[in-house]
């Protein structure tokens, strides 16, 4: 049984006791990039002794002490000399770094599916990873934390990560490594809305009354409108919205007009496209969740 202790992950190296009372300091050259770990900084002392079956670590910045079983770590070997004699031993590398891939802009994308669940272990590997990426000259770090691991958010914030955006199932956080202005793109700045101008060969236009409205809009008839979904085209989005609200199938013809305004919802800008549609069906079936009523308005008679 042997125990491995690491003092400070931001300046990490190793020392070994080999049956004698004494330590030797290893060169940081054994921390090769091919072994997924490289911190070319002045090392602090660590130690282990005996046959390696269990490892634990402690951190000077967090009250953290965790045991990590051998099966959770990936073994590797390194060589060293003591009094001119060559020796070979084991060290561990896999769980010292977060699993991540390079992006096309010189940054890294952390694999959200392989994040440690334990807060202390996450603290350990996050600090080691940031040190490694800094040495490697990486720039931006994208850290996606799923809802089930939301307790890791305070750890990331304490290490310098910032919020980028959030969805129902996760929060995206970022970290800019270089000591220069951050070049990471901001969160999405716009929402995209569409309106359907559905007109038949009798010059009748499809109009609706919404079920939920402010008192000032009581009795208002309007064209069907809605928001574009993620990764949805404008022309498919408006066809979907009209069908959902009124039951009318349509064919997209063209964009008639658009408008651009700012500070609409949560300080976001808004793009709104009015699309000309040709009806392919006649039977109106109102969506009772959103729409109070739907009718055809005649331009020729000015009546419903």
TrEMBL record:
Residue ranges occupied by any Nudix hydrolase domain in the UniProt entry: 189-304
Family matches, as Pfam families: NUDIX, Nudix_hydro
Coiled coil region boundaries: none
Keyword Hydrolase: yes
Gene3D superfamilies: 3.40.630.30, Nucleoside Triphosphate Pyrophosphohydrolase
InterPro entries: NUDIX_hydrolase-like_dom_sf, Nudix_hydrolase6-like, NUDIX_hydrolase_CS, NUDIX_hydrolase_dom, Pre-Nudix
Keywords: Hydrolase
Lipoprotein recorded as keyword: no
PANTHER family named among the record's database cross-references: FI03680P, NUDIX HYDROLASE RELATED
Similarity-based family: Belongs to the Nudix hydrolase family.
Protein name stated in the entry: Nudix hydrolase 8-like isoform X2
Lineage of the organism: Eukaryota, Viridiplantae, Streptophyta, Embryophyta, Tracheophyta
Gene this protein is translated from: LOC107027054
């Amino acid at each position: 049984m042997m125990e491995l202790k690491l003092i400070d992950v931001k300046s990490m190296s190793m020392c070994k006791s080999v049956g004698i009372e004494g330590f030797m300091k290893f060169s940081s050259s054994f921390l090769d990039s091919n072994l997924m770990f490289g911190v070319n900084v002045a090392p602090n002392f660590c130690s282990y002794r005996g046959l390696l079956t269990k490892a634990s670590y402690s951190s000077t910045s967090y009250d953290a002490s965790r045991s990590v079983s051998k099966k959770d770590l990936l073994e590797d070997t390194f060589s060293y000399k003591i009094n001119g004699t060559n020796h070979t031993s084991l060290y561990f590398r896999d769980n010292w770094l977060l699993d991540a891939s390079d992006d096309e802009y010189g940054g890294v994308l952390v694999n959200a599916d392989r994040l440690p669940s334990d807060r202390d272990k996450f603290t350990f590997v996050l600090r080691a990873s940031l040190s490694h990426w800094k040495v490697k000259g990486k720039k931006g770090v994208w850290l996606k934390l799923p809802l089930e691991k939301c307790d890791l958010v305070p750890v990331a914030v304490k290490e310098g990560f910032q919020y980028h955006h959030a969805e129902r199932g996760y929060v995206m956080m970022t970290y800019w490594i270089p000591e220069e202005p951050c070049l990471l793109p901001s969160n999405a700045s716009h929402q995209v809305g569409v309106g359907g101008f559905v007109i038949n060969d009798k010059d009748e236009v499809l109009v609706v009354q919404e079920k939920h409205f402010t008192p000032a809009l009581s009795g208002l008839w309007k064209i069907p409108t809605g928001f574009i979904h993620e990764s949805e085209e404008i022309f498919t989005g408006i066809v979907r919205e009209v069908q959902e609200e009124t039951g009318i199938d349509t064919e997209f013809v063209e964009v008639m007009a658009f408008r651009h305004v700012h500070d609409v919802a949560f300080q976001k800008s808004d793009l709104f496209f009015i699309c000309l549609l040709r009806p392919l069906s006649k039977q109106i079936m109102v969506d009772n969740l959103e729409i109070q009523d739907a009718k055809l308005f005649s331009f020729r008679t000015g009546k419903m």
